[in-house]
Amino acid sequence: MKEIERKQVKKVVNRIIREFSKPLNINEYEIIITPSIGISVYPEDGNNADELIRYADIAMYSNKKKKKVDYKFYDSNLNVILLQKAKIENRLRHAMENNELRLHYQPQINLNTGKIIGVEALIRWQNSELEHVSPGEFIPIVEESGLIKPIGKWVLQTACKQNKAWQDAGLPPINMSVNVYKNQLFNKGFLKTVNQVLEKIQLEPKYLELEITERNRKNIEELSHMLKKLKEIGVNIALDDFGTGYSSLSILDDIPLNNLKIDRSFIQDISKDKNKTALVKNIINIGNDLNLNIIAEGIETVEQQIFLKQHNCNIGQGYLFAHPLSVKEVEELLVKGEIFTSAS
What we know:
Layout: H1 3-20, E1 24-26, E2 29-31, E3 36-39, H2 49-64, E4 70-73, H3 77-92, E5 101-110, E6 116-127, E7 131-132, H4 135-145, H5 148-168, E8 175-179, H6 182-185, H7 190-201, E9 208-213, H8 220-233, E10 236-242, H9 248-254, E11 259-262, H10 264-267, H11 274-289, E12 293-296, H12 302-310, E13 315-316, H13 327-336
Parallel strand pairs: 3-4, 6-8, 8-9, 9-10, 10-11, 11-12, 12-13
Antiparallel strand pairs: 1-2, 5-6, 5-13, 6-7
Helix pairs in contact: 3-4, 5-7
């Protein structure tokens, strides 16, 4: 396609996006539409309507993954991406029965005492054909494909069972933190599943923490109701990736929480970015005023640890202390009563 023709297409598409992005008022509600457009071009991409529609759909799907209003021209490389996605989804459907899923556990450290007070369960997948697929690549597919219910239940069961096993072995009781995703949390059977897992394994609910993100706020009233029910069981609730979503401050007032996790993107720049430094200080102060435990993710340097401790952040997690560890590696730390040197 000639550049002048491509510019004309972009001009038309931008006009469509502008029109569709205007708020609609329906029965006193303001509805915001976020259009995502895929574009294929005749004859470069196809010689008939069916081909052009299929390729435009592929481009649109790829564009929607960016989760923002935009458009994308079809590119033959997109076929490779979609084929890889389909291959991953197909293999994931057999991952549990083939015993390919594992949990690793990243320690959470009391910054004042240096003791391990909990771990976060992190899923890993090893497939002989695909080799190592990163969580960032396969977890979105788990969510999109509907596999989040069985795999999410497996993660919850495995993490709780492991925590109970550590306790039965006489190791110090610690908190087990499990990530919960939107399609999992709002499933009608989720509350029942949590209850059943805790009762079957005989793990006290206070040793289980469920992590949600700001992106989980599908319906704030529904979310608040669900979290209140979970807290009635005795489970702890943490808000993960705080500061990266929308309406961050209002969500603290809307939902019941125990813990607030500061996203790693803020921690990485606290010694270089004055704005990030100010934001982290304010997040810590707000959390402490609300009687929440503050957990800083992604601590990688002693300088970051010192800053957080001096500003009353009481729990830390990151490579400075430990990478995600195997069951055996966590056991060794707990048996030794490992104390991570506390910076002053």
